[in-house]
Design brief:
single chain, 304 residues, Alpha-Beta Plaits, 2 domains
Length: 304
Protein backbone atom coordinates (compact mmCIF):
# COMPACT_ATOMS: atom_id res chain seq x y z
CA UNK A 1 0.00 0.00 0.00
CA UNK A 2 2.84 2.40 0.87
CA UNK A 3 4.40 1.76 -2.55
CA UNK A 4 1.12 2.61 -4.29
CA UNK A 5 0.87 5.85 -2.35
CA UNK A 6 4.47 6.65 -3.30
CA UNK A 7 3.72 5.96 -6.98
CA UNK A 8 0.65 8.22 -6.81
CA UNK A 9 2.53 11.08 -5.12
CA UNK A 10 5.35 10.83 -7.64
CA UNK A 11 2.89 10.81 -10.55
CA UNK A 12 1.37 14.03 -9.23
CA UNK A 13 4.87 15.52 -8.96
CA UNK A 14 5.59 14.56 -12.55
CA UNK A 15 2.18 15.95 -13.51
CA UNK A 16 3.14 19.45 -12.32
CA UNK A 17 6.82 19.29 -13.27
CA UNK A 18 6.15 19.31 -17.04
CA UNK A 19 2.76 21.01 -17.01
CA UNK A 20 2.62 22.13 -20.66
CA UNK A 21 3.64 18.71 -21.97
CA UNK A 22 1.27 17.01 -19.54
CA UNK A 23 -1.66 19.18 -20.63
CA UNK A 24 -0.82 18.44 -24.26
CA UNK A 25 -0.88 14.72 -23.50
CA UNK A 26 -4.20 14.92 -21.65
CA UNK A 27 -5.85 17.07 -24.32
CA UNK A 28 -4.67 14.68 -27.03
CA UNK A 29 -6.08 11.68 -25.19
CA UNK A 30 -9.30 13.59 -24.48
CA UNK A 31 -9.85 14.55 -28.13
CA UNK A 32 -8.89 11.11 -29.40
CA UNK A 33 -11.26 9.29 -27.04
CA UNK A 34 -14.00 11.86 -27.64
CA UNK A 35 -13.88 11.29 -31.40
CA UNK A 36 -13.72 7.52 -30.88
CA UNK A 37 -16.77 7.70 -28.59
CA UNK A 38 -18.70 9.82 -31.08
CA UNK A 39 -17.87 7.33 -33.83
CA UNK A 40 -19.16 4.51 -31.63
CA UNK A 41 -22.44 6.37 -31.09
CA UNK A 42 -22.72 7.10 -34.81
CA UNK A 43 -22.06 3.42 -35.50
CA UNK A 44 -24.97 2.43 -33.25
CA UNK A 45 -27.24 4.96 -34.96
CA UNK A 46 -26.19 3.73 -38.41
CA UNK A 47 -26.96 0.15 -37.38
CA UNK A 48 -30.39 1.32 -36.18
CA UNK A 49 -31.03 3.00 -39.53
CA UNK A 50 -29.94 -0.13 -41.41
CA UNK A 51 -32.20 -2.30 -39.26
CA UNK A 52 -35.10 0.09 -39.89
CA UNK A 53 -34.53 -0.01 -43.64
CA UNK A 54 -34.21 -3.80 -43.57
CA UNK A 55 -37.54 -4.10 -41.81
CA UNK A 56 -39.15 -2.12 -44.62
CA UNK A 57 -37.65 -4.24 -47.40
CA UNK A 58 -40.35 -6.33 -49.04
CA UNK A 59 -41.27 -7.80 -52.40
CA UNK A 60 -44.37 -6.77 -54.31
CA UNK A 61 -45.41 -9.19 -57.04
CA UNK A 62 -48.00 -7.66 -59.39
CA UNK A 63 -50.57 -9.97 -60.96
CA UNK A 64 -52.80 -9.57 -64.01
CA UNK A 65 -56.41 -8.46 -63.66
CA UNK A 66 -57.69 -11.73 -65.13
CA UNK A 67 -55.62 -13.96 -62.84
CA UNK A 68 -57.77 -16.62 -61.20
CA UNK A 69 -58.06 -16.89 -57.44
CA UNK A 70 -56.81 -20.46 -57.64
CA UNK A 71 -53.60 -19.46 -59.40
CA UNK A 72 -53.05 -16.56 -56.97
CA UNK A 73 -53.47 -18.91 -54.00
CA UNK A 74 -51.04 -21.37 -55.59
CA UNK A 75 -48.38 -18.65 -55.97
CA UNK A 76 -48.97 -17.47 -52.40
CA UNK A 77 -48.52 -21.03 -51.07
CA UNK A 78 -45.33 -21.41 -53.13
CA UNK A 79 -43.89 -18.17 -51.75
CA UNK A 80 -44.80 -19.09 -48.16
CA UNK A 81 -42.67 -22.21 -48.52
CA UNK A 82 -39.51 -20.25 -49.42
CA UNK A 83 -36.79 -19.79 -46.82
CA UNK A 84 -36.54 -16.21 -45.57
CA UNK A 85 -40.22 -15.38 -46.11
CA UNK A 86 -41.95 -14.09 -42.99
CA UNK A 87 -45.47 -13.51 -44.28
CA UNK A 88 -47.47 -13.24 -47.49
CA UNK A 89 -50.46 -10.98 -48.10
CA UNK A 90 -52.64 -9.92 -51.00
CA UNK A 91 -53.75 -6.45 -52.11
CA UNK A 92 -56.70 -6.22 -54.47
CA UNK A 93 -57.05 -3.61 -57.20
CA UNK A 94 -59.55 -1.66 -55.11
CA UNK A 95 -57.26 -1.75 -52.06
CA UNK A 96 -54.32 -0.62 -54.21
CA UNK A 97 -56.34 2.35 -55.47
CA UNK A 98 -57.46 3.22 -51.94
CA UNK A 99 -53.86 3.09 -50.68
CA UNK A 100 -52.73 5.27 -53.57
CA UNK A 101 -55.51 7.80 -52.92
CA UNK A 102 -54.62 8.00 -49.22
CA UNK A 103 -50.95 8.60 -50.06
CA UNK A 104 -51.89 11.44 -52.44
CA UNK A 105 -53.96 13.54 -50.06
CA UNK A 106 -51.56 16.45 -50.57
CA UNK A 107 -51.85 16.09 -54.39
CA UNK A 108 -55.54 15.47 -55.15
CA UNK A 109 -55.08 16.58 -58.77
CA UNK A 110 -53.13 13.40 -59.51
CA UNK A 111 -56.01 11.25 -58.25
CA UNK A 112 -58.51 13.37 -60.22
CA UNK A 113 -56.62 12.66 -63.44
CA UNK A 114 -57.53 8.98 -63.12
CA UNK A 115 -61.10 10.00 -64.00
CA UNK A 116 -62.65 7.15 -62.03
CA UNK A 117 -60.49 4.47 -63.63
CA UNK A 118 -58.25 2.07 -61.72
CA UNK A 119 -54.99 1.36 -63.58
CA UNK A 120 -53.34 -0.23 -60.54
CA UNK A 121 -52.86 -4.01 -60.54
CA UNK A 122 -53.49 -6.37 -57.65
CA UNK A 123 -50.38 -7.61 -55.92
CA UNK A 124 -48.95 -10.32 -53.69
CA UNK A 125 -47.05 -8.67 -50.84
CA UNK A 126 -44.08 -10.57 -49.39
CA UNK A 127 -42.49 -9.61 -46.07
CA UNK A 128 -39.00 -10.99 -45.41
CA UNK A 129 -37.29 -12.18 -42.25
CA UNK A 130 -33.87 -11.22 -43.70
CA UNK A 131 -33.42 -8.29 -46.07
CA UNK A 132 -30.19 -9.77 -47.49
CA UNK A 133 -32.13 -12.67 -49.03
CA UNK A 134 -34.43 -10.45 -51.10
CA UNK A 135 -32.61 -11.08 -54.41
CA UNK A 136 -32.60 -14.84 -53.91
CA UNK A 137 -36.31 -14.93 -53.03
CA UNK A 138 -37.15 -12.69 -56.01
CA UNK A 139 -35.29 -15.09 -58.31
CA UNK A 140 -37.19 -18.05 -56.87
CA UNK A 141 -40.51 -16.28 -57.44
CA UNK A 142 -39.53 -15.68 -61.08
CA UNK A 143 -38.80 -19.40 -61.41
CA UNK A 144 -42.39 -20.27 -60.49
CA UNK A 145 -44.23 -20.99 -63.78
CA UNK A 146 -47.60 -20.12 -62.25
CA UNK A 147 -46.44 -16.65 -61.35
CA UNK A 148 -44.98 -16.14 -64.84
CA UNK A 149 -48.43 -16.98 -66.26
CA UNK A 150 -50.42 -14.61 -64.04
CA UNK A 151 -48.00 -11.69 -63.66
CA UNK A 152 -49.13 -8.35 -65.11
CA UNK A 153 -46.24 -8.32 -67.60
CA UNK A 154 -45.73 -11.88 -68.91
CA UNK A 155 -43.29 -10.63 -71.57
CA UNK A 156 -40.91 -9.49 -68.82
CA UNK A 157 -41.90 -11.14 -65.51
CA UNK A 158 -39.03 -9.42 -63.67
CA UNK A 159 -40.81 -6.12 -64.35
CA UNK A 160 -43.71 -7.44 -62.25
CA UNK A 161 -41.52 -7.67 -59.16
CA UNK A 162 -40.69 -4.60 -57.10
CA UNK A 163 -38.25 -4.63 -54.20
CA UNK A 164 -35.71 -2.28 -52.61
CA UNK A 165 -32.52 -4.29 -52.93
CA UNK A 166 -30.69 -1.51 -54.77
CA UNK A 167 -31.47 0.91 -51.97
CA UNK A 168 -30.21 -1.55 -49.35
CA UNK A 169 -27.03 -2.26 -51.36
CA UNK A 170 -26.25 1.46 -51.60
CA UNK A 171 -26.87 1.85 -47.88
CA UNK A 172 -24.57 -1.07 -47.05
CA UNK A 173 -21.85 0.35 -49.32
CA UNK A 174 -22.12 3.76 -47.66
CA UNK A 175 -22.02 2.37 -44.12
CA UNK A 176 -19.06 0.11 -44.95
CA UNK A 177 -17.16 3.11 -46.31
CA UNK A 178 -17.98 5.08 -43.14
CA UNK A 179 -16.77 2.19 -40.98
CA UNK A 180 -13.46 1.91 -42.85
CA UNK A 181 -12.87 5.66 -42.63
CA UNK A 182 -13.74 5.56 -38.92
CA UNK A 183 -11.36 2.68 -38.22
CA UNK A 184 -8.54 4.50 -40.03
CA UNK A 185 -9.21 7.74 -38.16
CA UNK A 186 -9.37 5.95 -34.81
CA UNK A 187 -6.05 4.24 -35.52
CA UNK A 188 -4.42 7.59 -36.30
CA UNK A 189 -5.84 9.19 -33.15
CA UNK A 190 -4.68 6.31 -30.96
CA UNK A 191 -1.20 6.57 -32.48
CA UNK A 192 -1.05 10.33 -31.82
CA UNK A 193 -2.17 9.87 -28.21
CA UNK A 194 0.38 7.08 -27.77
CA UNK A 195 3.18 9.31 -29.07
CA UNK A 196 2.20 12.15 -26.72
CA UNK A 197 2.16 9.84 -23.71
CA UNK A 198 5.50 8.39 -24.79
CA UNK A 199 7.11 11.83 -25.09
CA UNK A 200 5.67 13.02 -21.78
CA UNK A 201 7.01 10.04 -19.87
CA UNK A 202 10.35 10.31 -21.67
CA UNK A 203 10.71 13.93 -20.49
CA UNK A 204 9.79 12.87 -16.97
CA UNK A 205 12.49 10.18 -17.06
CA UNK A 206 15.11 12.61 -18.33
CA UNK A 207 14.16 15.15 -15.63
CA UNK A 208 14.65 12.54 -12.91
CA UNK A 209 17.66 10.72 -14.31
CA UNK A 210 19.91 11.69 -11.35
CA UNK A 211 17.28 10.54 -8.88
CA UNK A 212 16.91 7.27 -10.80
CA UNK A 213 20.68 6.73 -10.71
CA UNK A 214 20.67 7.17 -6.92
CA UNK A 215 17.78 4.73 -6.58
CA UNK A 216 19.77 2.18 -8.53
CA UNK A 217 22.75 2.61 -6.24
CA UNK A 218 20.69 1.99 -3.12
CA UNK A 219 19.25 -1.17 -4.64
CA UNK A 220 15.74 -0.11 -5.70
CA UNK A 221 14.03 -2.73 -7.85
CA UNK A 222 13.15 -2.11 -11.49
CA UNK A 223 9.46 -2.29 -10.67
CA UNK A 224 9.80 0.34 -7.94
CA UNK A 225 11.58 2.69 -10.36
CA UNK A 226 9.05 2.12 -13.13
CA UNK A 227 5.99 2.48 -10.88
CA UNK A 228 5.70 6.30 -10.80
CA UNK A 229 6.00 6.57 -14.58
CA UNK A 230 3.30 3.95 -15.13
CA UNK A 231 1.10 5.78 -12.61
CA UNK A 232 1.72 9.08 -14.39
CA UNK A 233 0.77 7.64 -17.77
CA UNK A 234 -2.35 6.06 -16.27
CA UNK A 235 -3.26 9.39 -14.60
CA UNK A 236 -3.06 11.25 -17.91
CA UNK A 237 -5.23 8.60 -19.57
CA UNK A 238 -7.87 8.59 -16.82
CA UNK A 239 -8.21 12.38 -16.84
CA UNK A 240 -8.49 12.43 -20.64
CA UNK A 241 -11.03 9.59 -20.61
CA UNK A 242 -13.15 11.24 -17.90
CA UNK A 243 -13.25 14.50 -19.87
CA UNK A 244 -14.29 12.64 -23.03
CA UNK A 245 -16.99 10.72 -21.12
CA UNK A 246 -18.29 13.99 -19.62
CA UNK A 247 -18.67 15.60 -23.05
CA UNK A 248 -20.37 12.52 -24.50
CA UNK A 249 -22.76 12.42 -21.52
CA UNK A 250 -23.71 16.04 -22.28
CA UNK A 251 -24.46 14.93 -25.85
CA UNK A 252 -26.49 12.02 -24.46
CA UNK A 253 -28.56 14.14 -22.09
CA UNK A 254 -29.07 17.34 -24.08
CA UNK A 255 -28.19 16.96 -27.78
CA UNK A 256 -29.66 13.59 -28.78
CA UNK A 257 -33.12 14.26 -27.23
CA UNK A 258 -33.39 17.48 -29.24
CA UNK A 259 -32.32 15.74 -32.44
CA UNK A 260 -34.84 12.96 -31.76
CA UNK A 261 -37.60 15.54 -31.31
CA UNK A 262 -36.59 17.37 -34.48
CA UNK A 263 -36.26 14.18 -36.56
CA UNK A 264 -38.80 11.74 -35.08
CA UNK A 265 -38.74 9.58 -38.23
CA UNK A 266 -35.02 8.84 -37.83
CA UNK A 267 -34.20 5.90 -35.48
CA UNK A 268 -31.40 7.56 -33.54
CA UNK A 269 -32.35 6.41 -30.06
CA UNK A 270 -29.36 4.96 -28.19
CA UNK A 271 -30.19 3.29 -24.88
CA UNK A 272 -28.39 4.09 -21.65
CA UNK A 273 -26.82 0.62 -21.47
CA UNK A 274 -25.03 1.25 -24.77
CA UNK A 275 -23.62 4.53 -23.44
CA UNK A 276 -22.36 2.76 -20.31
CA UNK A 277 -20.58 0.17 -22.46
CA UNK A 278 -19.01 2.95 -24.53
CA UNK A 279 -17.83 4.73 -21.37
CA UNK A 280 -16.25 1.56 -19.99
CA UNK A 281 -14.57 0.92 -23.35
CA UNK A 282 -13.21 4.48 -23.51
CA UNK A 283 -11.83 4.28 -19.99
CA UNK A 284 -10.19 0.93 -20.74
CA UNK A 285 -8.81 2.20 -24.05
CA UNK A 286 -7.38 5.28 -22.32
CA UNK A 287 -5.64 3.15 -19.68
CA UNK A 288 -4.18 0.87 -22.33
CA UNK A 289 -2.87 3.84 -24.32
CA UNK A 290 -1.41 5.47 -21.19
CA UNK A 291 0.24 2.33 -19.86
CA UNK A 292 1.62 1.22 -23.23
CA UNK A 293 3.00 4.70 -23.89
CA UNK A 294 4.74 4.64 -20.53
CA UNK A 295 6.10 1.11 -21.03
CA UNK A 296 7.56 1.91 -24.43
CA UNK A 297 9.10 5.14 -23.14
CA UNK A 298 10.78 3.25 -20.29
CA UNK A 299 12.02 0.48 -22.56
CA UNK A 300 13.74 3.01 -24.76
CA UNK A 301 15.03 5.57 -22.28
CA UNK A 302 15.08 3.87 -18.90
CA UNK A 303 17.74 1.17 -19.07
CA UNK A 304 17.00 -0.67 -15.89
Amino acid sequence: MSSLLYFFRESLTGFTRNLSTTLGSIITIFLSLLIIGIFCICGVIINNVIASVENQVSITAYVADDASEQDINAVEDYIRGLNGVESVGFTTKDQALENFTNSMTSNPDIVAQLDGENPLPASIDVNLSEAQSVSEIASQILNDPTFVEICDNPEDPSDSLQYGQKTVDKLFSLTNAIRYIGIGLIAVLVLIAFIFINNTIRLAILARRKEIAIMRLVGASNGFIRGPFLAEGALHAIIGAVLAIAVIEVIHLFVLPRVTTTLPWLPINVDTGTFILIYVALLAAGLVIGLLGSVFAMRRYLKV
